[in-house]
Write a structure and sequence with these properties.
Family: Belongs to the multi antimicrobial extrusion (MATE) (TC 2.A.66.1) family.
Helix content: over 70%
Pfam families: MatE
Radius of gyration: 19 Å
Structural class: mainly alpha
Protein name: Protein DETOXIFICATION 27-like
Number of strands: 0
Number of domains: 1
GO molecular function, one term: antiporter activity
Organism: Punica granatum
Distance between the termini: 26 Å
Shape: globular
Order of helices and strands: HHHHHHHHH
Strand content: under 5%
Largest sheet: none
Length: 208
Amino acid sequence: MASALETLCGQAFGAKKYYMLGVYMQRSWIVLFACCVLLLPLYTFASPFLKLLGQADDLADLSGLVSSWLIPLHFSFAFQFPLQRFLQSQLKTAAIAWVSLLALLVHVAVSWLFVYQLQLGVVGTAVTLNFSWWVLVFGLLGYTVFGGCPLTWTGFSLEALAGLWEFVKLSAASGIMLCLENWYYRVLVLMTGNLKNAEIAVDALSIW
């Protein structure tokens, strides 16, 4: 859904209405955060939902456990993706690259701690993802707010609350387009869960 910003921010930047980039990003934060809240039951009740789809109990239970630990990651998307589109539309890709490098270093260090030292297994991997994605959010936000985008970030604005419905429709159209591209793989994973030796099949497919 954040892909809507690619169009809106690109047009605003080209028209030299620089302050509108910040307004659009704030609208995207509001819309995406609301969608994260609406999708929260899928994370909270992942185990019974997967069992309803015919997944093996042990696989569904582990998936449900991981899903609950990934809720912070889920909410980080609402901020990270709009920030990325906001900066890309201004050709500030170097900032994204440096912050991504920082996130990678944090990811390696936290992975080593939680997975290898504390032996937390799959839960440790989920916690690691939470850390690294929120490092991306705070890194990109810090760059934006503390002087990296003086023309396009003028602070929080009440203007972001206007025209939300039109923004929702454009964001939904962008989201549906990308979902259709990605769901074929997710459907494959779900179908694989119905095979014999489901754990091995899903593991192999995930690694691939």
